[in-house]
């Protein structure tokens, strides 16, 4: 197949599929509840049940208190990602807090937090660090 | 017969891939069952597929040069009859089984293959979430016996392309089970859903490409359980839709682990060529450890499918 035809097919195909998915409402993030955050955590760390869960006001992230430290669950498209926090680099962000991890598969996450939430989360994250 | 050529069937199949994705998406939206789609996940998968084709164009000469060098030294030439192509297809599928098995049991090869499992979705776009770094694994050597036996390199690559196309349609939740005879011999959506499951029961199972008989022969077959839906993705799911990160994250992690200060040669080799999840200090879990921990929590599963070893 000539390269220019292949390029048109590939670029056009990706654009059409992406546009269609977005128009169908399939770009929406699935918000967390305390229950779904717990399930998402246990899905990743079945041996570390949460002692407590702090859900962000926008329901896009949850801090997980553990016997052995602190974890974080956050929304990732229609799904979730979870990590035990080991010395994350926490910096202020205009929307809340930005976390950087020494993890090539999940290098950073930005948490959208209200002004009253930020000090609470920052303190909990400091403890994790 | 060194100038034998076959069509690049994977490139020719691109319009079919796009059409089939649209049909599956339509089915899911209209019927409200049969799988899930999410925009960024699907786009990442499609970009990985495009990158795989690009990598093939850029780096394909490495493998092809290696194969032609072997072809130049082998005294055997089986010709190009239909029967020879069929035998080549079956033997290449056996080759695929072992490369795929190495891809899950040797971190050096997993670093390339991991991206195919990095989606938490299972739909036709997942099939196209292919590696960009396959050449780096040097798994092309597993094809060497086929060339040395007298199968022309162009034929070997042709049947490899057909193998890849076959595997496209099995990446779907829209198809439940195929007829019993088909499920017994061929790789199917049901068998391959198991392969993509991160459930302890389903880890390191069903490596087949086209014929599931290889898994049945070599003891790696696990049937899909009506009571346990596969949970798709990685044991530790990634948190990025960036295709470059998806393609290279495990290579970077491997290098970071293997080159860290203060560990011996054995540990370095373990990080590079041991099973995924190997760690010198026991801080991570291999598949074996994950299954053992699952059984400690769920002793009733002992001896059941996927936990029989």
Automatic annotation (TrEMBL), chain A:
<keyword id="KW-1133">Transmembrane helix</keyword>
<keyword id="KW-0812">Transmembrane</keyword>
<protein>
    <recommendedName>
        <fullName>DUF2550 family protein</fullName>
    </recommendedName>
</protein>
<keyword id="KW-0472">Membrane</keyword>
<feature type="transmembrane region" description="Helical">
    <location>
        <begin position="6"/>
        <end position="26"/>
    </location>
</feature>
TrEMBL record, chain B:
<dbReference type="Pfam" id="PF04116">
    <property type="entry name" value="FA_hydroxylase"/>
</dbReference>
<dbReference type="GO" id="GO:0006643">
    <property type="term" value="P:membrane lipid metabolic process"/>
</dbReference>
<keyword id="KW-0560">Oxidoreductase</keyword>
<dbReference type="InterPro" id="IPR051689">
    <property type="entry name" value="Sterol_desaturase/TMEM195"/>
</dbReference>
<feature type="transmembrane region" description="Helical">
    <location>
        <begin position="12"/>
        <end position="30"/>
    </location>
</feature>
<dbReference type="GO" id="GO:0016020">
    <property type="term" value="C:membrane"/>
</dbReference>
<keyword id="KW-1133">Transmembrane helix</keyword>
<feature type="domain" description="Fatty acid hydroxylase">
    <location>
        <begin position="85"/>
        <end position="220"/>
    </location>
</feature>
<feature type="transmembrane region" description="Helical">
    <location>
        <begin position="78"/>
        <end position="98"/>
    </location>
</feature>
<protein>
    <submittedName>
        <fullName>Sterol desaturase family protein</fullName>
    </submittedName>
</protein>
<keyword id="KW-0812">Transmembrane</keyword>
<dbReference type="InterPro" id="IPR006694">
    <property type="entry name" value="Fatty_acid_hydroxylase"/>
</dbReference>
<feature type="transmembrane region" description="Helical">
    <location>
        <begin position="42"/>
        <end position="72"/>
    </location>
</feature>
<dbReference type="GO" id="GO:0012505">
    <property type="term" value="C:endomembrane system"/>
</dbReference>
<feature type="transmembrane region" description="Helical">
    <location>
        <begin position="146"/>
        <end position="169"/>
    </location>
</feature>
<keyword id="KW-0443">Lipid metabolism</keyword>
<keyword id="KW-0472">Membrane</keyword>
<dbReference type="GO" id="GO:0050479">
    <property type="term" value="F:glyceryl-ether monooxygenase activity"/>
</dbReference>
<dbReference type="GO" id="GO:0008610">
    <property type="term" value="P:lipid biosynthetic process"/>
</dbReference>
<dbReference type="GO" id="GO:0005506">
    <property type="term" value="F:iron ion binding"/>
</dbReference>
